[in-house]
Amino acid sequence: MEEFVVLVNPQDEVLGLMEKQQAHVNGLLHRAFSVFLFNHKGEMLLQKRASGKYHSPLKWTNAVCSHPRNGETYLEGAKRRVKEELGIEVEISEKFNFIYKADVGNELWEHELDHVFIGTFEDDFHLNPDEVAEVRYISFEDLDKEMIDQPENFTEWFKIILEEYKHHF
Q1: Which residues contact 106 (CB under 8 A, 6 or more apart)?
Q2: For residue 157, what are the domain limits?
Q3: Which residues are identified as catalytic?
Q4: Which helix (H) or strand (E) holds 47?
Q5: pTM of the predicted protein model
Q6: Cβ atoms of 10 and 29 closer than 8 Å
Q7: Average confidence (pLDDT) over 68-74
Q8: How many domains does the chain have?
Q9: Torsions phi, psi of 119, nearest 5?
Q10: Residue 66 contacts residue 44 (beta carbons within 8 Å)
């Protein structure tokens, strides 16, 4: 099934729809969301993207990142993808939004108006193997060290979003 993203201007006014991969080839600004989940110790959940993903396979990133569908709010899309990818339901709240553009390799770009949500979760996951290879919690200290020592193991957008996150908290 073809997936479409919602193209927007910097004020989040809808310009139209485009097939997801084409929007990434063209580097056009579109709606997106990122979900950060934490455990009671304040450790961040990371997911390793499945090997079959068309870009950035087997790279670590935040708990969930994706795109709302046409007619879907950012929150609705985020909760849908948390359920589809991690197999869980969790309360999340929006903390901020910003625009970024990242080269994700293979002549593909993420150019997103990204709404960032956070929540807490400490139960069992039911991972969708088509989306997620594995998950783990990590402290900010260990995450910073890994990102310095092995930056190639992380998605390009996660590097950007994590820095933006740190500016807000």
Answers
A1: 55
A2: 4-168
A3: 65, 112
A4: strand 44-49
A5: 0.95
A6: yes
A7: 97
A8: 1
A9: -165, 175
A10: no
